[in-house]
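Schema walkthrough. Field components (list of strings):
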Amino acid sequence: MKVELVAVGDELLIGDVVNTNASRLGRMLTDAGLRVTGVSTVGDGLGELVEVLRIAVDRADAVLITGGLGPTSDDRTREAVARVAGVELRRDPEVEQWLRDRYRDTNRTLTGLGLQQADLPEGGRILPNDRGSAPGLTIEVRGTVVYATPGVPHEMAAMVGDQVLPDLLRRSGAPAPRAQRVLRTVGVGEGVVAQHLEPLEKDLAASGAVEVAYLAEPGETRVKLTSTGPGGGAEVDAAALRAYELLGDCVYAEGTESLVAVVARLLVERGATLAAAESLTGGLLAATVVTVPGVSAAFRGSVTAYATDVKTSVLGVGAALLAAEGAVHPQVAREMAEGVRALLSGTYGVATTGVAGPEPQDGRPVGEVHIAVAGPEGTVTVSPHLPGDRDRIRTLTVVRTLELLRRTILGLPQEPAREFTG
Amino acid sequence: MKVELVAVGDELLIGDVVNTNASRLGRMLTDAGLRVTGVSTVGDGLGELVEVLRIAVDRADAVLITGGLGPTSDDRTREAVARVAGVELRRDPEVEQWLRDRYRDTNRTLTGLGLQQADLPEGGRILPNDRGSAPGLTIEVRGTVVYATPGVPHEMAAMVGDQVLPDLLRRSGAPAPRAQRVLRTVGVGEGVVAQHLEPLEKDLAASGAVEVAYLAEPGETRVKLTSTGPGGGAEVDAAALRAYELLGDCVYAEGTESLVAVVARLLVERGATLAAAESLTGGLLAATVVTVPGVSAAFRGSVTAYATDVKTSVLGVGAALLAAEGAVHPQVAREMAEGVRALLSGTYGVATTGVAGPEPQDGRPVGEVHIAVAGPEGTVTVSPHLPGDRDRIRTLTVVRTLELLRRTILGLPQEPAREFTG
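Field assembly_structure (string):
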């Protein structure tokens, strides 16, 4: 069953909003065994929306629209669906009453534009929305089922999870799953990972049983091994085994477990705790750590020592060192890590210092970064030079810090073995 | 000139990667006065890619493809462009030599798959890539100019900014700009903002000179006023004046200045500094503050007191208070804000505590949040109940904290006037 997504809104085209709905839906539908074959983003204009919907309806078995259902004049999705279906819009009296009650309860005035949220193309069915005022709808158009949901991410996700997905699965029957394994690597680039897997790729190209795909994210590369037909678990397992041999300790996890989740799990398993001291990452390392549910068992807290004197007054970094070398120095990272470990009584203390840009600092170039991990066995530091803009340098610094911590906890060498770095 | 974007990659369809390229390009092209009329996302399969490209080429004056140019077997963009153009691929000897040098310099082996990066559709032109190994390309197809750039965001952005955009602007001539103003509001929902602007919308609907669009983001709503034709500055200015009257102090800025940038500017202008103490936001508040370039003049630093005892040992929150009330309490927020203000010698200290979920904490429900701002005039607190999941509650807490700080610095009431909250 081919599913196409259509995202509606000028704000998506002009880049005011990132289309996270598409990736979230992609994940939800893929996890359920459905196949997303395309995503179209279109503006608020009725003509373009009708045209894009028509193409999607002709091409796919199911079309899922997000956005354009609200109470403002640029919300035209209902009208567009009615046109593509070749039917009229009718006002649904039950929804109208529900809207009137809802607006009254929240002391708001329901205007004509608000009332359009009760309109439904003839032959369609309302999808109730218990998180907002705009209901969704579904209708069959020339053998293709069309769903429209609000664009507000949490309303969309609830409506799809509770109503759209069960309906889609009922229609598609249970899709035959293909075997898949995903190896997650860190510390080496996509090209290097692909190069190491060339022998495996060559064998797989000959057998045709397993596909290899690479997915690069900042500092990480995922390797996805998927059987080309239903089943194929044994072939995928054999390929994964070979990939492990070829990639060594660059593989930090399988499946959906992120690097920060692995680090949190390693800490919790050992009854160990973490404290962080941040300079250039400015809180991003801590904010990344706390995305893991349950991490409060292992995370003590952090200090963002953004002003240089705070590094001394709170973390105890030597004032003479800072005066002589500035804040961007491996020894500063070391003393920050050791200082925060003592201050917050953590098993491990980690620290970041460096230049995120846009300007050089203390005579050090943008991208110079020093990372330290202090633990029961002592302190280690790495000093990468990282590429990119302010955001990217910070993101890569967080990945490198988590990776150094992972290697320290597991007793691995500080960096991947030479043969894996090319 | 209509520009369509085509993003290539299975990882986008299955939701492994969020399509930030589309929003970034949308912003770049819109800022340059060009009009993005659609975005299509398609997988790695050659057939679908050719079909989507064909439609985009027929519909638009320019098509910008991102992704599918790399050295792996699922990179098929060059081949698809050649098919749509009806020409053959030829290997470019200069690019081949450049690739051989580049791979040799970085001790990598250039294989057949790597060499496909030197292939170019006949009649096309290479777009050099100085940040990665995959060059881009451009070619005219039936009167539409097609560009292909790498999918790696920073490579894409550099190639578009340096090469694609200048070429596009040369082709389009200077587009006639339409007048536009964007009012940024915080603290009230999109529906409430729209409701307050109904009198303005009614007048504008009659005159037809200015369009109103709403853009909701977590905790914020932007109001975009755009003239319907070229020029129209006076009409937009008059509409903006009216909107200011109707929205009062909920408007915090105009144009592209974000809430955190406004707060940073207010601090710097006053020679004031900020210190933050975070519990449920776990570093996100500090990480948001440091996204503003130049904020180091005003930001002292922060303490993430994730473990309850750290609130006492580092920030000086009363141990008896924590024992009696738990960590989720307005008085805890107050003492955290005052504690971090003293610890880091800031003009203002801000603090967040609450329950981000997924589980209740200390007998308090998910979404209960307490925020405090301590300053020279004393300390204020607000205690909103925030909706959504863990991420959303944290994001909304950061927005509410920045808004309370903005109001405190400016001497405004703690919350928008009653008439604006509906």
